[in-house]
Design a protein that fits this description.
Radius of gyration: 23 Å
Number of strands: 16
Structural class: mainly beta
Number of domains: 2
CATH topology of the largest domain: Jelly Rolls
Strand content: 25-35%
Number of helices: 2
Shape: elongated
Helix content: under 10%
CATH architecture of the largest domain: Sandwich
CATH superfamily of the largest domain: Calcium-mediated lectin
CATH class of the largest domain: Mainly Beta
Strand order of the largest sheet: 11-6-16-15-14
Largest sheet: 5 strands, antiparallel
Length: 239
C-alpha cells in the first residue's frame, strides 16, 4: 500500500506412444508432447527392438519474446497473441485511495492505448484489458501513472527508457533486493499469488509480471514499494 506524503526419461514425459505415425499436439502449451515408434509389434526374448522418438518441449516466455534488460519493453520473436491483466493496485493519498492508470503502445510509432483507470477496489484480476495479436519484431511498451487528489497526475513511469520504477520479471526471478517492502514483508495480499514467501516470482511459464512504483524515485525510500500497480502479460500461440 502506498500512502503519499533422453530414453530413460521417457516415462517422466507426456508422450503419445503411436506406432508408425506421429501424434497430434494435444493443445496444452505447458506440457511436453511427442511420439514414439517401434519397429516391431511383437518382440521375442533376446531380440532388441529399435525405438525412435521425438519430444517437443513447451515454449517459455523467453522463447516467444525478448525483454529489454534496460527498459523492460517487450519485442516478440514470433507472432503471438498477447493478453494483459491488471492483477492489483495499491495507491492512496492520505486516507483516500486514488486512481491509477495503465496504457500500452503496440508498435513504436503507434498511439498509446488506455487499458485501465481506477482505484484499487475496481481491479478485477480476471479481466483482460488488452487481447491483441502482435507480429514478430513489434515493440510493446507500457506506462502507468497515479492521480493526485486534485485530479492532476504524478509523473509517468514507463518502458521508454531505463527506470528503476518499472520492473518486468518472469517465473523464477527474484524481486528487486533494493525494495524495502519485499525485505520487510509488507507485500500487498494480491501479490501472494505471484510472489512466494522467499520473494521469487511464481507466474506462469508464458507470463511477464510488471511491478510499478508510481510515487517515489528513490529506491531507498520506504515509499518505494513497487506495488502501486501490478500487471501480468501472457503470450499465446497463434495458429
Amino acid at each position: 500500500m502506498k500512502t503519499a506524503l533422453a530414453l530413460g526419461a521417457i516415462s517422466a514425459l507426456t508422450l503419445a506412444p503411436v506406432f508408425g505415425q506421429q501424434a497430434a499436439n494435444h493443445g496444452d502449451p505447458f506440457t511436453p508432447v511427442g511420439w514414439l515408434t517401434v519397429n516391431r509389434v511383437h518382440v521375442r526374448t533376446g531380440v532388441k527392438p529399435e525405438l525412435t522418438w521425438s519430444i517437443q518441449y513447451p515454449k517459455t516466455v523467453h522463447d516467444i519474446v525478448d525483454i529489454d534488460p534496460e527498459t523492460d519493453k517487450i519485442v516478440p520473436k514470433q507472432k503471438t497473441r498477447m493478453e494483459v491483466r491488471v492483477v492489483g493496485a495499491a495507491f492512496q493519498v492520505g486516507a483516500t485511495h486514488t486512481p491509477v492508470a495503465l496504457q500500452a503502445r503496440v508498435g513504436s510509432g503507434s498511439s498509446w492505448e488506455p487499458l485501465f483507470f481506477g482505484a484499487d477496489n475496481t481491479v478485477n484480476p480476471s479481466d483482460v484489458v488488452l487481447n491483441q495479436v502482435v507480429e514478430a519484431g513489434t515493440t510493446v511498451d507500457f506506462a502507468a501513472q497515479a492521480q493526485r487528489l486534485n485530479g492532476s497526475w504524478y509523473s509517468s513511469r514507463n518502458t521508454l527508457s531505463p527506470n528503476p520504477t518499472v520492473q518486468a520479471m518472469t517465473k523464477g526471478d527474484s524481486v528487486p533486493h533494493y525494495v524495502p517492502a519485499y525485505q520487510q514483508g509488507t507485500v500487498e495480499s494480491f501479490l501472494t499469488s505471484y510472489i512466494d514467501a522467499d520473494n521469487f516470482v511464481t507466474v506462469g511459464p508464458r507470463d511477464v509480471i510488471y511491478l510499478f512504483e508510481l510515487y517515489s524515485n528513490n529506491p531507498t525510500s520506504s515509499y518505494f514499494d513497487m506495488q502501486d500497480i501490478v500487471v501480468v502479460v501472457t503470450f499465446h500461440d497463434v495458429d
